[in-house]
Amino acid sequence: MILFCPLCNNNNCRNYFQDQRRNYWQCPHCHLVFVDPSQRLNKTREKAQYDLHQNSPDDVAYRQFLSRLYKPLIERIDSPERIDSPEHIDSPEHMNSNAQGLDFGCGPGPTLSTMFEEAGYSITLYDIFYANNSSALEQPYHFITATEVVEHLFSPGKVFHKLWKILLPGGTLGLMTKLNTNQRAFSTWHYKNDPSHVCFFSRETFSWLAKGLDAELNIIGQDVILLRKKCA
User: Fold this and answer.
1) Is 143 helix (H, G, I), strand (E, B) or coil?
2) What pTM was computed for the model?
3) In the beta sheet, which residues pair with residue 134?
4) Torsion angle in degrees (nearest 10) through CA of 199, 75, 231, 216
5) Position 87 pLDDT exceeds 90
6) Per-residue pLDDT tens over the stretch 33-61
7) d(CA 220, CA 141)
8) Nearest Cα to Cα of residue 221 among 191, 189, 176, 185
């Protein structure tokens, strides 16, 4: 069976793991692990899975979870008005309201965008199911966020290309997704059991991606990835 990697389009992918529900393949080129395309959810079942999410801007614990991306990203937003001191991070009067951001895959209860808006930033929402506004993907942005999104993508290579195209030089693409560490850990990894999770990234995968994009890569912990677009 010949399968093409959904990230780099390599056609020499190998079997990585198999459980009772799905087969998982790995690309030897970019190291992405992905679900057999024939075993993905259809759009109706995929949306039904997302409808189960109970995320809300009023959920303090969820805000704390998102702050793992919010705080380091807000420090890196490229602006001459930016204050670098950590004590100013949550102070709206020190934020650059001219910076435009995109919350890609915002979901049914946008929260990260609310956090940025509270700090004085302008945020555009996009989600294929909940905010499907194609014009949002035709505008330039100083920063783009995608929290718990890339593991759901059927065609991550095309999506990264699109997002990188609309990210301004000096801007940052901030991601949150759990990182695959090795095959043994993957075999008992709860993250793979979500039926809507179809792509699994590792540090090696993001290193490959950063090199291809000519981006500055910063990985924080096990789930925060920052890709900064170099200035020309």
Assistant:
1) strand
2) 0.91
3) none
4) -40
5) no
6) 999 999 999 999 999 999 887 788 888 99
7) 23
8) 176
